[in-house]
Amino acid sequence: MGPFDVVIIGCGSAGLGAAGTLRASGKSIMVLEAADHIGGRTYCDNTSFPAPFDFGGQWFHMATRPSLRGGLGSNNPLYDIAKSRGLAVPSDLNRRVFMPTSPPQNVLASALPVTLGLVAGAALWAGGKAALFSHDPAHDVSLAAASAGLKGQPRYDQCWGALVTEHGAELDRVSCLDVFNLAMTANLPVITPSWDNHLIPSGMGNFIATFAEGVPITLNAPVKSIGWGGKDGVAVETSAGIVRARAAIVTVSVGVLSSGTLAFDPALPDRHRRALAGLEMGHTAKIGLLFDRDVFIGLDANTIVLPEDNRRSQPLVQTKAWGHNMAIVIIGGDEVADMEEKGHLVDYAKEQIAEMFGNEAKNAITKTVASSWSTNPWVRGGYSSALPGGVPGRMVFAEEPLADRVFFAGEATSKLQHSSIHGAYLSGQDAAERVLKVLSA
Predict the structure, then answer these.
(1) What is residue 316's three-state secondary structure?
(2) Are residues 314 and 433 in the same domain?
């Protein structure tokens, strides 16, 4: 097929961001997607529950001002677009409470966890700041190392678990600098209410899918290899044949790049392989639960419930999701991959409901749905996480194309807005702008 100006591999937020920019410039494009749906890791189930269930991201993060790009918008262009369309995008000011307690204890009113969280946050900030200003990746330490002085505190494991749930990766493998870069851009709280984070009851996946309107996309088309060493452009091998283009934008996850299922001919340069070794995929899962009655009496819609006890397994439970008798359980960390592989995610979610709300609530569950990002061969994890010293690898993929023919995009290529839907979208736009400069030269 082709030749096209640009072939885009992946139609998640990054791929769709790139496609929109290129189409606006009049370029001929083709988008190849290995999965059977649009949106990548931002995808909705619209049939199992009374409201859309997002298998992936469901928050607009970092919707703060002033915008990094100037103008009147926020740091999150997707939030700005949704708001301009008149979609409901309320701030996530919903309560966070510990259970089982009677009455439910507000997280922000619990002195010990809050104090420990603030002290831990200060330690992580100091660690990231030291790494940033040293300009030496060797000075970058893990979140676990930065907060080691707090080990042994009564709520240390609870604080650890909350951070693991937020970042998807164990703290001994998460770069302080990576988290500091996020914090410099805007607050990224999931556990505490924030004006900067917004929900979209109509479904994030449904919203992202609208960016595919009019875009030529081929689903169920996994790419086997990308040839970029010839005289003219790239040759992208799929199960349906070869797609030729002047350039390619690769938006697949770090998990896919690391797996080797997508081959490069010639192979990735050493610099890119070293960069890839400093990045990995955290593991995150979401489980949707439908109940035959209201088992969350006394809680407002979308109240986030956390287990009260001091343990490193810290799921978040969005109760009465969107005002319905449903809940969304969110968990993160290494145990997610193991549970997913063994088919234990739903059982785990049910046990959390039983522990926090009693066996009667567990017995009221009538339907369940679970994500499968870690075992999905086209994803292989939740979202990217930089190992200590690995942050520069993000910029290698963002700024160093292969022979000005193969460009990279995706949340993993964003230094300040990684691990976010809008970070992926912006990276796709940036990659497209780089391609346009090359094509016009």
Answers:
(1) strand
(2) no
Nearest to 123 by CA among 107, 102, 143, 99: 143
Whether 293 and 163 map to the same domain: the answer is yes
Based on the domain organization, do 322 and 186 belong to the same domain? yes
268 and 213 both lie in a single domain: yes
| Residue 352 tokens, joined | 């959390």
Question: Is the confidence at residue 371, as pLDDT, over 70?
Answer: yes
Query: Tokens 């994890």 belong to which residue?
Result: 381
Measured between its terminal Cα atoms, the distance across the chain in Å is 25
182 and 316 inside one domain: yes
* Separation in Å, CA 172 to CA 105, 169, 319, 340, 440: 30, 8, 31, 22, 45
Q: What span, in angstroms and rounded, lies between the C-alpha atoms of 124 and 145?
A: 9
For residues 293 and 427, state if they share a domain. Answer: no
pLDDT per residue as tens digits for the range 419-437: 999 999 999 999 999 999 9
Name the one residue in this structure whose structure tokens are 């797996």. 259
Closest CA to 350 of 372, 333, 366: 366
The distance of Cα 118 from the centroid of its chain, to the nearest Å, equals 24
Q: Give the whole-angstrom CA distance, residue 98 versus residue 191.
A: 11
- In the chain, % of residues over pLDDT 90: 73
CA distance 15 to 258: 19
For residue 153, what are the domain limits? 95-192+284-370
- Dump pLDDT digits (tens) for 279-324: 999 999 999 999 999 999 999 999 999 998 888 889 999 999 999 9
Global confidence as pTM: 0.94
CATH number at residue 342: 3.90.660.10
Residues 340 and 424 in one domain: no
pLDDT, one tens digit per residue, over 149-186 is 888 888 888 888 888 898 899 999 999 899 888 877 75
Q: Which residues pair with 9 in a beta bridge?
A: 32, 250
CA distance 248 to 237: 12
Strands (E) across 193-301 are located at 194-199, 217-218, 223-227, 234-238, 241-250, 263-265, 279-281, 284-291
